[in-house]
Amino acid sequence: MPELSRRRALTAAAALATAAGVQTALAPAVPASGHDHHAPTSFDEVYKGRRIQGRPASGGGHEHHGGGYAVFVDGVELHVMRNADGSWISVVSHYDPVPTPRAAARAAVDELQGAALLPFPAN
Questions:
Q1: pTM of this prediction?
Q2: Buried-exposed string 84-114: b where 16+ CB fall within 10 A, e elsewhere
Q3: SS3 of 89, please?
Q4: Rounded to 5, what percent of the chain is helix, strand, coil?
Q5: For 1-5, 67-71, 84-88, 109-113, which range has the lowest pLDDT when averaged over its residues?
Q6: Which of 7-38 are b and which e, b meaning 16 or more Cβ less than 10 Å from the residue's Cβ?
Q7: Facing residues of 73 across strands?
Q8: Is the pLDDT score of 91 beyond 60?
Q9: Please, where are the H alpha helices in 35-117?
Q10: In this model, does residue 29 exceed pLDDT 60?
């Protein structure tokens, strides 16, 4: 069995360190406590003539998808989901992730182009 040379040992160590660094860099930044300390704040505004609102959810519905956050367009709940990377999507703009629930509400208004948002059927 060939001996392990110093060069091979250093090459292997460098490869392992690089792989570990890549995994750390690609992992989502989630605090050790498991809670997001950068939870979105509430909002209530008129965007392009539509009233959009967002606030922490209080029970019921689809909390597991929206991370405990509810978004409304003209009083109708917009189903939102938080992705593992921290971005947000909605049932209206599902393939266009945005950084915040407010941005998801605005994207939905843009996509609706004046049409009414219909309630999302609960399972």
A1: 0.65
A2: eeeebbbbbbeeebbebbbbbbbbbbeebee
A3: strand
A4: 30, 20, 50
A5: 1-5
A6: eeeeeeeeeeeeeeeeeeeeeeeeeeeeeeee
A7: 52, 76
A8: yes
A9: 63-66, 101-112
A10: no
